Each structure stands twice: as structure tokens, then as C-alpha cells.
């Protein structure tokens, strides 16, 4: 969760800034590509041309405000953000019971200055964990609430409609087309099974992700590539997907792999160690921004550690001309990439470009 009230010194003091490349001021159309919204743990703007953290997002009403999540809207430089109001004295770490969420509209100008431009919704029960905007501009949300015994209940819906559907994972949500929502929770069987040397069978990937046709409410299934072991993804303009999945040689190493349906075309990014915590496309779908971190011990105690982090920008324009091979491959696609920021202990899980 993202808190407006947390002091700046808690998170900004540990940041190491680098990459001070000089450049001219961006045009308005470039602003959405130069600046990044991320949680620090409160929403903040970062200039990707310099690596500098610019400003925190203003409160809609000038009071201390909890921001829960945010997403890019359809027009360049426009975003959606969720604020949460909780019952007085209630610990937000314990339960979303009694909380109310509101979706706000934000704009960002060519200098990275963010303004709140009103609301996109009224109050919605619970805490909205994720947002997704369809190609037609419809806003989907996934929210979590709790009953009187604090049992968590999660649902997804679309603003302007009355239907909601239960979801297993409210933290990830996306549109596969203008009518279909995908819920990237744990894949459902049948999975791809393989056998270890000792004869033990294990899940190697595959299965289906649950979907919902929002016009009719019909449930469906999105096939998962047979060698896929994780379900973080982004969809490119040509409908091919970049999935985050474990390396076939080392399950502790995550890779970003380009897929056309069930067929892998090649590896977009594979760090030698650490984990991929986030990824997001720029508005044109031509560049990918990846959040990567490595936990590092700083002492002998259980809490004596830090996270060395990077944001890596990857140029995807060469992907347009790639043909899909007859059989899957994890070959290195060698797309140009650049580290645009590195530092410590920021919350990079929530980013919107």
C-alpha cells in the first residue's frame, strides 16, 4: 500500500542518483515517456532522463491521503490513481474492512508536474488493488474487502456497469482486448508436467488463466505457454506478449521472454541474479521499463539487509520485424537496453510510464 503520510526522509535519503545526461526540454507528447510514476512508498515522479526524483503526487483534497495504486490512462500524460479512506483508528495493515476507495484522474505536463483533475468514480467499498484501462478507455478495477471475521474477499468490475466477479488475485489485472479481462492469478490445470531424474513429477508450466467477457459475464480461459512458470506480463501493440518466467537452466533466475501465442521468440532481458519486480510499457509500446532488485546483507541480524535496485529501459522496436519461429527458442534477442536509475530500497512494484 502507498501512503501519503510517510515521511520523505524514510525513502529518499537512501537513493543514489546517477545518469545526468543533458538534453533539451521534452515536447508535451514526449512527457509521458520521459517521466515515471512510482511508489516510494507514496506516489512520486521520476525523470528518466536524469534519474532524479522530482515530486510527490498532490493530495486530491489537501489532506494526508493514502494512495493504493495507479495506472496509465489512454491519452498520453493522463493517469488514474486510487485513494483510500479508512475507519478512524483502523490499522490498514490488518484488514481492508470498512475502507472506501475512490478513483481520481491525473494529468502530467511536459515538465513532469502532476495535477489531480477530479474523480472517475464515486466511493467503492474496500481497497482497490489494481486498475486496468481498455483500448476503448473503460476502467476495470479489482478490489479487496473483508467480512466481520476479517476473511478477505476480492472482486473485479468495470466502472459504469453493475456486475462484479470474484477474483483470486486482485493485484494484477489486464485487458486482452476491448471485451475481455484477464486475471493473472495462479494458472489453472491442465498444466505441462515433466519428470525429474528421481522420477518425481512436477509442474513445468502451461495451464490457463481465468478470463471474463465483460459484456455477457461469460467465464473463459487464456492458454498459458507450456514452458511458462510465472504470470507477470505486458501485451505489445501487435498482441504478442512479454512474459516473466524462470530460466530453464536455473529456476531462481527470472527472464523476460517474448511470445507469440504459445511459441517463445526469444529472451528480452535476463539478469544474472536478483528478481524482476515490475515492468511497464511506454504509451507507444516501443519501449519497456523493468524494475530489478537484488537483496544484499548489511549485517548479521534478520533485518540487516538492503535492496540494490535498477530501472532498465529496453528498446523493443526491433521486435516488430521478428518472425515467429516454428519451435520455441530462448535465444538472446539483444535488444538495446540502458540503466536509467539505480539506488536502494524504493518501492518499484508499482510503476506507470
UniProtKB/TrEMBL annotation:
Source superkingdom: Bacteria
Protein name, entry field: Uncharacterized protein
Organism in which the protein naturally occurs: Nonomuraea jiangxiensis
Organismal lineage: Bacteria, Bacillati, Actinomycetota, Actinomycetes, Streptosporangiales
Amino acid at each position: 500500500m502507498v501512503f501519503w503520510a510517510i515521511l520523505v526522509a524514510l525513502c529518499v535519503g537512501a537513493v543514489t542518483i546517477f545518469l545526468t545526461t543533458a538534453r533539451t526540454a521534452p515536447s508535451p507528447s514526449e512527457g509521458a515517456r520521459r517521466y515515471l510514476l512510482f511508489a516510494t512508498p507514496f506516489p512520486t515522479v521520476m525523470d528518466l532522463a536524469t534519474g532524479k526524483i522530482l515530486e510527490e503526487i498532490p493530495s486530491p483534497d489537501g489532506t494526508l491521503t493514502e494512495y493504493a495504486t495507479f495506472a496509465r490512462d489512454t491519452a498520453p500524460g493522463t493517469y488514474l490513481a486510487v485513494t483510500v479512506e479508512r475507519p478512524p483508528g483502523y490499522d490498514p495493515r490488518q484488514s481492508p474492512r470498512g475502507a472506501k476507495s475512490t478513483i481520481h484522474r491525473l494529468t502530467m505536463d511536459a515538465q513532469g508536474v502532476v495535477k489531480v483533475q477530479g474523480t472517475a468514480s464515486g466511493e467503492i467499498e474496500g481497497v482497490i488493488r489494481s486498475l486496468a484501462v481498455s483500448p476503448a478507455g473503460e476502467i476495470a478495477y479489482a478490489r479487496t474487502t473483508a467480512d466481520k471475521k476479517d476473511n478477505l474477499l476480492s472482486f473485479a468490475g468495470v466502472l459504469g456497469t453493475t456486475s462484479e466477479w470474484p477474483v483470486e488475485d486482485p493485484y494484477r489485472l489486464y485487458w486482452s482486448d476491448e471485451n475481455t479481462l484477464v486475471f493473472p492469478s495462479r494458472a489453472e490445470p491442465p498444466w505441462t508436467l515433466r519428470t525429474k531424474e528421481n522420477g518425481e513429477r512436477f509442474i513445468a508450466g502451461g495451464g490457463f488463466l481465468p478470463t471474463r467477457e465483460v459484456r455477457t459475464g461469460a467465464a473463459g480461459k487464456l492458454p498459458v505457454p507450456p514452458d511458462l512458470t510465472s504470470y507477470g506480463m505486458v501485451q505489445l501493440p501487435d498482441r504478442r506478449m512479454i512474459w516473466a518466467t524462470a530460466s530453464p537452466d536455473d529456476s531462481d533466475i527470472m527472464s523476460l521472454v517474448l511470445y507469440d501465442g504459445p511459441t517463445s521468440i526469444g529472451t528480452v532481458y535476463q539478469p544474472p541474479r536478483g528478481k524482476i519486480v515490475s515492468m511497464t510499457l511506454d504509451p507507444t509500446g516501443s519501449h519497456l521499463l523493468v524494475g530489478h532488485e537484488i537483496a544484499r546483507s548489511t549485517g548479521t541480524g534478520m533485518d540487516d539487509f538492503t535492496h540494490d535496485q535498477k530501472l532498465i529501459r529496453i528498446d523493443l522496436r526491433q521486435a516488430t520485424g521478428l518472425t515467429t519461429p516454428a519451435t520455441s527458442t530462448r535465444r538472446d534477442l539483444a535488444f538495446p537496453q540502458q540503466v536509467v536509475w539505480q539506488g536502494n530500497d524504493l518501492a518499484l512494484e508499482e510503476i506507470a510510464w
